[in-house]
Amino acid sequence: MAEAVAEGALSVQGVEAELTYYVPTETLSSYDAILVGVPTYHHDMTIDMKKLFEEAAEKNINLQGKTAAAFGSYGWSGEAPKLVLEIMKNKFAMNVAEPPLLVRYEPDQGALEKCRDLGKRVAESLIHVTQHVL
Ligand SMILES: Cc1cc2nc3c(=O)[nH]c(=O)nc-3n(C[C@H](O)[C@H](O)[C@H](O)COP(=O)(O)O)c2cc1C
Predict the structure, then answer these.
(1) Which end of the chain is more exposed for a tag (fewer CB within 10 A), N or C?
(2) How far is the CA of 49 from the centre of ligand 1 (A)?
(3) 77 lines ligand 1 (CB under 6 A)
């Protein structure tokens, strides 16, 4: 799913996208948009993701006004991407793209297309913001 999201973002001219499983909190503020992929386990996001947010909050990492999106595979309840967006919106004052993209278990071609579309839409919104500022 993350690969498809990145592919969608990269299809927009002038946008660079980095796909990573780990990101040091200090570098978060160097991105214009952060798109989080997270599966739901025990009605929650994964521990690594929680730790990232905890650490970013502790270090007062400023993400205000940056674009955020979330997506993830789930089995039956799928809370994680929604929780992630809530934190990005309420704690970090990010500009969130709602609703999150949820895919039940393994993504099929249709779901991967939705992932590409999410990446593309977010990337296009960044281009529009830049053009507006210029
Ligand atoms: C131990 C365990 C707990 C899970 N808890 C939930 C849950 O609370 N809600 C849900 O929607 N899916 C739950 N799932 C299903 C996973 O979200 C689903 O298998 C998802 O596709 C996992 O994505 P991943 O393979 O990218 O880790 C759980 C799966 C496991 C193995």
Answers:
(1) C
(2) 15
(3) yes
Cα 110 to ligand 1 centroid, rounded to whole Å? 20
Q: Which ligand 1 atom lies nearest to the CA of residue 103?
A: 21
Contact 99, 60 (CB under 8 A): no
* 35-46 mean pLDDT: 98
Helix (H) / strand (E) containing 104? strand 101-104
What's the number of CA atoms in the CB half-sphere (13 Å) around residue 110? 3
The stretch 90-97 carries a mean pLDDT of: 97
User: In the structure, what pLDDT confidence band is assigned to residue 128 with cuts at 50, 70 and 90?
Assistant: confident
Name the DSSP class of 32: S
Instruction: Give the CA angle between residues 41, 87, 50 to the nearest 5°.
Output: 45
What is the total residue count of the chain? 134
**Full-model pTM:** 0.94
Q: Mark out the alpha helices in 61-108 (DSSP H runs).
A: 80-90
